From TrEMBL:
Family, similarity comment: Belongs to the glycosyl hydrolase 3 family.
Organism, scientific name: Enterococcus gallinarum
SUPFAM superfamilies: (Trans)glycosidases (SSF51445), Beta-D-glucan exohydrolase, C-terminal domain (SSF52279)
UniProtKB keywords: Glycosidase, Hydrolase, Signal
Protein name listed in UniProt: beta-glucosidase
């Protein structure tokens, strides 16, 4: 449809029909077979109201979408198709590793492929929009939703958020005809990842400097990549819930970030303004959210029951209403829904079996997401070795993670299943599902450990313990899991611990007794196969931590990119009192952002800095060599420190990275280019600019052992 036609359609709409377009409900509202029961009755909604709504969220099958759309179009006067949205976060039916795991790959291309494959499966099931990517900046693993994030570094997160948007949407202008892609909704705008004390939905108080410097860039990246929707967050920011926060939505999102698509609330967040006590009733809640700039009301009846009356009493607001409705129509048009409301669902040839191809990608993604944190000459396993496999995750199929509502647990390959295909003597001690380690289990495990060459202990969180509303005050493994690792390690020192989790955990108690530690996260449908390939050395672990693993919960919130302080701790002043340090713990994380090793290694052989006057571009050339006899993949990381700044800045921050495959004995020169823009930062006037001065550059394969390269002048 041409823009003119969209305007003509808008002009044809009654006030009630316009308001209806701004309402999003779940599919169960439609499952009444014509009778007003269930949620319709509970919400005291009429059928007339139902057949003017604009969107549905959370359908499961193509048949369901087809039936609802058909029923809707038959009853609605203007026949504006519904737009169907869903949480397709790390896959639809085939589940990929959780986003935090994918971030560990440091691989934009991989993330783009994963998003594309997820879009394809979801589109086949009738989904038009995914509530992904999550662009929240995170520093606190107590918050369970770090699982959905790209970790603690805003530069890495921005690159990956942008990759997700490209993968889901493809070429935005082709979205109308390319029914294999779907629209993306970036969330949760803004500050949702910074709840006080890591408690989900809790207060957020952020300085503007911090907001602009670290919390907005990933949203900006999504918008630059053409994201179609933005979801506002549940939290307050500096006292005002974002869902009612005019400054955040109008000034920051619309004006500063230049977003011109559709703004949707989070689930029920408009009505929650009453619980926040910034609105005394539904009328006030709807008015506050609407005036602030929230356009679509997800799962509340506030807009549906209030906005028409509000516009009658304040006609000046109709312009705002028209603008919001236009954004909804535009989204539907961008998706090609006016031409085909079923978006290809009745094309015979759409129903190709994607499973095999997508599962392969899921396995590759898992192989590239698992982080090897420690390896004292134990891995890879050797063929014929006698291996004990114990612990709650040994045979568990609970490897999908929080957002796998369509993915089937039965279709998961467990660690035991993956390892059983390998040429080792595998001895598994199954773990009673959902139970804690009993004394009997512990004894059997110790017995088995003694009789084997290597012990693999598979431990971690259940999917119920990670994700939304799973905040924690303790991040250690459960006491029984720690006890299990410690007990077997006294009988057999060859312990490999595999951690399955949706967040960084505190591993201080078990790290000393494990020869190898692998972080598998929630690796998805093919987790067991991927891990087996890695454990056997058929694939090399190549991921790096996207979020630091603290030594103690008391270090949180934590980021490796700490700002300079007036009393920094240095190598020389370790024992002094009046410096910025803890009395009972080191400052640094146990395993920092960027940490991870493989089975091979390489060395930084030579570096050179060069400046091109004409393009004002600095080039850093790093020659790295694999001196070993095994092939090796590494992630070369470049960090910088601005030597003199207007506001306090990080002691080091990631600027560029590259994954490099180096065959045994070979070397390669990797070039990184920088312009002044790469070193711009937010100043106290909230503007992004760079200062004249020097920048120190550091390079490494892991951010705790960086090599100082030199200074460049910008
Ligand atoms: C609430 C969550 O915060 C959000 O991320 C999700 O997209 C919506 N529910 C819809 O399910």
């Amino acid at each position: 449809m041409k823009e003119k036609q969209l305007h003509a359609l808008l002009n044809e709409m009654t006030l009630a029909e316009k308001v209806g377009q701004l309402v999003q409900l779940t599919p169960d509202f439609f499952a009444q077979g014509g009778e007003i029961t269930g949620p319709l009755q509970e919400w005291q909604m009429t059928e007339e109201q139902l057949f003017i709504i604009g969107s549905v969220l959370g359908t499961h099958t193509a048949q369901q979408v087809y039936a609802i759309q058909k029923q809707y179009l038959a009853k609605s006067r203007l026949k504006i198709p519904l737009v169907f949205m869903a949480d397709v976060i790390h896959g639809y039916e085939t589940i990929f590793p959780i986003p935090l795991a994918l971030a560990a790959s440091f691989d934009e291309k991989l993330v783009e492929q994963v998003a594309e494959a997820s879009a394809e499966e979801a589109a086949e099931a009738g989904v038009h929009v995914t509530f992904s990517p999550m662009a929240d900046h995170v520093k606190d693993a107590r918050w369970g939703r770090v699982l959905e994030s790209n970790g603690e570094d805003p530069t890495l997160s921005s690159a990956l958020v942008s990759a997700y948007v490209r993968g889901y949407q493809g070429d935005k202008d082709l979205l109308a005809t390319n029914h294999k892609r779907i629209a993306a909704c970036v969330k949760h705008f803004v500050g949702y990842g910074a709840p006080e004390a890591g408690r989900d939905y809790h207060t957020v108080d952020l300085s503007e400097l911090e907001l602009y410097q670290n919390y907005l860039p990933a949203f900006h990246a999504a918008i630059d990549a053409g994201v179609q929707l933005v979801m506002t967050s549940f939290n307050t920011i500096n006292g005002i819930p974002v869902t009612a926060n005019k400054k955040m939505i109008q000034e920051v999102l619309r004006e500063k970030l230049e977003f011109n698509g559709l703004v949707i609330s989070d689930w029920g967040a408009v009505a929650e303004l009453i619980a926040h006590r910034v609105a005394e009733n539904r009328e006030a809640a709807a008015e506050k959210a609407f005036r602030a700039g929230v356009e679509m009301d997800m799962m509340s009846d506030c807009y549906l029951n209030v906005l028409e009356q509000l516009i009658h009493s304040t006609p000046a607001l109709e312009k705002m209403l028209d603008q919001a409705v236009f954004h909804v129509l535009q989204l539907k048009n961008n998706l090609g829904l006016f031409e085909d409301p079923y978006r290809g669902l009745n094309d015979q040839n759409l129903s190709v079996n994607l499973a095999a191809k997508t599962r392969r990608l899921s396995r590759e993604a898992a192989e590239q997401s698992v982080v090897l944190l420690k390896n004292d000459h134990l891995l890879p396993l050797k063929t014929k070795q006698k291996v004990a496999l114990i612990g709650p995750k040994a045979t568990s199929k609970d490897l999908l993670g929080a957002w796998s509502w369509i993915g089937k647990t039965e279709a998961v390959v467990s660690l035991q299943e993956g390892l059983s295909t390998k040429d080792i003597q595998l001895n598994t001690l199954p773990y009673p599902d959902g139970e804690e380690v009993t004394e009997e289990y512990l004894q059997k495990a110790c017995h088995l450990a003694e009789a084997c060459d290597v012990v693999i202990v598979a431990v971690g969180e259940t999917s119920e313990e990670a994700g939304e509303a799973t905040s924690l005050t303790k991040l250690e493994l459960s006491r029984n899991q720690e006890k299990l690792i410690q007990a077997v390690s006294t009988l057999n020192p060859n312990v490999v611990t595999i951690i399955f989790s949706g967040r960084p955990l505190v591993l201080s108690a078990i790290e000393p007794v494990c020869k190898s530690i692998l972080v598998a996260w929630f690796p998805g449908s093919e987790g067991g196969n991927a891990l087996a390939n890695l454990l056997m050395g058929e694939k090399e672990p190549q991921a790096r931590l996207p979020m630091s693993f603290p030594r103690a919960v008391g270090q949180l919130p934590y980021t490796y990119a700490q700002l300079s302080t007036g009393r920094p701790q240095t190598k020389e002043n370790q024992d002094q009192k009046y410096i910025s340090r803890y009395m009972d713990e080191k400052n640094e994380a146990l395993f920092s952002f960027g940490a991870g090793i493989g089975y091979g290694s390489c060395i930084l052989k030579e570096t050179a800095l060069d400046f091109d006057d004409q393009t004002a571009t600095h080039t850093l050339a790093c020659t790295i060599k694999n001196p070993t006899s095994v092939d090796h993949t590494t992630i070369l990381q470049v960090y910088s420190r601005d030597d003199q700044t207007e506001v306090a800045r990080p002691m080091r921050e990631l600027k560029k990275w590259q994954k490099v495959f180096l065959p045994a004995g070979k070397e390669q020169t990797i070039r990184f280019q920088f312009t002044e823009h790469d070193f711009a930062y937010i100043h106290s006037d909230l503007l992004l600019k760079s200062d004249v001065g020097t920048i120190s550059l550091f390079v490494g394969f892991d951010n705790t052992s960086l090599t100082f390269i030199g200074k460049i002048t910008i």
